[in-house]
Specification:
The protein has six helices and eight strands, in the order E-E-H-H-H-E-E-E-H-E-H-E-E-H. It is of the alpha+beta class and 178 residues long. Strand 7 and strand 8 form a beta hairpin. The mean pLDDT is 97. It comes from Armatimonas rosea. Keywords: Acyltransferase, Transferase.
């Protein structure tokens, strides 16, 4: 488990499946995430959570973003580690009621710190749909640097999307950490 001032990042449990379904079923959430379909099948949340232990053994660490004050599940965050290259791809999503409240930035900063301190990574990168500039602002606030746009990089629902790419290097993180 990872903590911030307001959040606890913890492994998902099957008890979280109804809440994941509730949050992920909103069209606006699906529109900003590559791996959340719309409509969101009710069984998908439990199936997804059930795969996490096996995926963690392969380097894909997925955590629930929960609020400390009431343990409410707000969304999810992941770090997919490629150990050979000491790098990881960061991903995250939040339920619509929790957008624009600083939760994503807080969770991203903590996950970046975890990647550099616990996994000795050299590089953490992330990308977002160009139609979701708020996600790019989260990455910037977390200290990531804009690297460029991958044109028509991702296909979702039969449509190709540009994805702006951001990254942070271990040396940059060390130099910016208080």
């Amino acid at each position: 488990m990872l903590e911030t001032d307001r959040l606890l990042l913890r492994p998902f449990t099957l008890d979280d499946a109804p809440r994941v379904f509730e949050l992920a079923s909103v069209p606006e959430v699906a529109a900003t995430s590559l791996n959340i379909p719309h409509p969101y099948p009710e069984s998908l949340a439990a199936d997804w959570i059930g795969k996490h232990p096996a995926e963690a053994k392969k380097g894909m660490h997925v955590l629930a973003i929960t609020r400390k004050t009431d343990s409410l599940l707000l969304g999810g965050i992941s770090l997919g580690i490629t150990h050979r290259h000491h790098r990881a791809e960061l991903g995250y999503w939040l339920g619509l009621p929790y957008w624009n409240q600083g939760y994503a930035t807080e969770a991203v900063r903590r996950m970046i710190a975890w990647g550099f301190t616990e996994h000795k990574l050299n590089r953490i990168f992330a990308q977002h749909f160009a139609c979701n500039p708020a996600s790019g602002r989260v990455m910037q606030k977390a200290g990531m640097t804009f690297e460029g746009v991958l044109r028509d990089c991702i296909q979702k629902d039969g449509v190709y999307h540009d994805t702006p790419m951001y990254s942070i290097l271990r040396a940059e993180w060390v130099n910016s950490s208080p």
